[in-house]
């Protein structure tokens, strides 16, 4: 069934005593906006968590396989597509290095049908074995913290060493020193967009949409690690338009949802230090937005 509505959404999540998204180019420090000091989490990081959640829930069985995953060899997945559509002969000889001929469209459709993240987020599949390119209907922005964050650095000790040489050098003390970076607390906001036009091109369905909402609400529950501390989805606010093209600009809808620090909280350390408002009021389930006719706001998490 084709998707008949455009969607925009606001995702709120927080981190406590953890590193939500380290920057490998900066010693794995939490990402920040250098000018404002606000924390950043990349869209790629959030998509990774959605992929992981869907892979767990659906056990990576078609049509919910995951294309971009740990240790994946992407061209092997492209080859599967050509075998499935009966065009395996194009994978031999010089044909493998060509653009795929008139079978690229069929291969691309097969990839969309079988891989959840391809039909959701899109993919560039023209590497080596050509399955074309897909522009995904679901897009996410970087998440940005509501207030500036402070990156704390900690020295940590492991009561063991990796080699005998290290043990001899320490005279049997057997300690390994390391460092760890955390954010004491940060509340982050990300924005998302879902195009019904692109959804109908990739086959992204209403069932896929429900799974996406579920993943955004629960993805941190299955992504625990010592480095990430406590991360939790604190709110998922979904704007549903009455049409495919939409009834209001996304930026004007996002302005309806605001998170601010309470007057008696000077240094945030808990989610309860903040208040989340919709048009100046606390929202429980759903609301009609009077300034945006044809748009309904629902709190999904």
Q: Between the first and last Cα atoms, what is the distance in angstroms?
A: 25 Å
Number of strands: 15
Number of helices: 8
What overall geometry do the principal axes of the alpha carbons give?
flat
Q: Count structural domains.
A: 1
Share of residues in strands: 25-35%
**Helical amount among residues, as a percent range?**
10-25%
Low-confidence stretches: none
**Major sheet: size, sense and barrel closure?**
9 strands, antiparallel
Rg over CA atoms, rounded to whole Å, is 23 Å
What class do helices, strands and sheet pairing give?
alpha+beta
Order of helices and strands: EEEEHHHHEEEEEHEHHEHEEEE
Mean pLDDT: 90
Brief rundown of the structure:
The chain has 301 residues and is α+β, with helices and mostly antiparallel strands.
List keywords for this structure.
alpha+beta; 25% helix; 301 residues; 8 helices
Structure description:
With 301 residues, this protein is an alpha+beta fold. The protein has one domain. Helices cover 25% and strands 30% of the residues. It has eight helices and 15 strands. The chain has helices at 43-58, 74-84, 104-114, 116-121, 164-169, 196-202, 206-218, 250-254; strands at residues 7-18, 22-23, 29-30, 38-41, 122-124, 133-135, 138-140, 143-148, 152-158, 176-194, 230-241, 257-261, 274-278, 286-288, 295-299. The strands form four sheets. Strands 1, 4, 7, 8, 9, 10, 11, 14 and 15 form a nine-stranded antiparallel beta sheet that branches. Strands 2-3 form a two-stranded antiparallel sheet. It has a two-stranded antiparallel ribbon with strand order 5-6. It is flat and about 65 Å long. The relative contact order is 0.20.
């Amino acid at each position: 069934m084709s998707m008949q509505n455009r969607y925009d959404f606001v995702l709120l999540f927080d981190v406590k005593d953890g590193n939500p998204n380290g920057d490998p180019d900066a010693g794995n420090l939490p990402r920040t906006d250098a000018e404002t000091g606000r924390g950043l989490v990349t869209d790629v990081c959030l998509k990774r968590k959605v992929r992981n959640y869907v892979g767990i829930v659906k056990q990576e069985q078609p049509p919910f396989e995951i294309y971009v995953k740990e240790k994946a060899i992407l061209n092997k997945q492209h080859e599967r597509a050509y075998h499935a559509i009966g065009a395996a002969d194009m994978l031999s000889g010089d044909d493998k290095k060509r653009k795929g001929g008139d079978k690229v469209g069929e291969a691309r459709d097969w990839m969309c049908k079988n891989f959840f993240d391809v039909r959701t987020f899109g993919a560039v599949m023209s590497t080596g074995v050509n399955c074309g390119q897909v522009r995904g209907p679901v897009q996410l922005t970087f998440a940005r913290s509501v207030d500036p964050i402070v990156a704390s650095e900690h020295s940590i000790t492991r009561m063991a060493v990796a080699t005998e040489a290290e043990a001899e050098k320490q005279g049997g003390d057997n300690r390994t020193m390391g460092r760890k970076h955390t954010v004491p607390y940060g509340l982050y906001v990300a924005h998302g967009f879902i195009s019904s036009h692109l959804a109908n091109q990739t086959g992204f369905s209403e069932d896929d949409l429900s799974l996406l909402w579920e993943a955004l609400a629960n993805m941190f529950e299955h992504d625990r690690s010592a480095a990430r501390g406590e991360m939790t989805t604190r709110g998922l606010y979904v704007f549903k338009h009455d049409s495919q093209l939409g009834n209001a600009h996304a930026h004007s809808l996002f302005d309806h949802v605001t998170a601010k620090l309470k007057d008696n909280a000077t240094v945030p350390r808990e989610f309860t230090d903040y208040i989340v408002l919709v048009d100046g009021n606390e929202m429980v389930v759903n609301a009609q937005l009077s300034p945006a006719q044809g748009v309904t706001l629902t709190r999904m998490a």
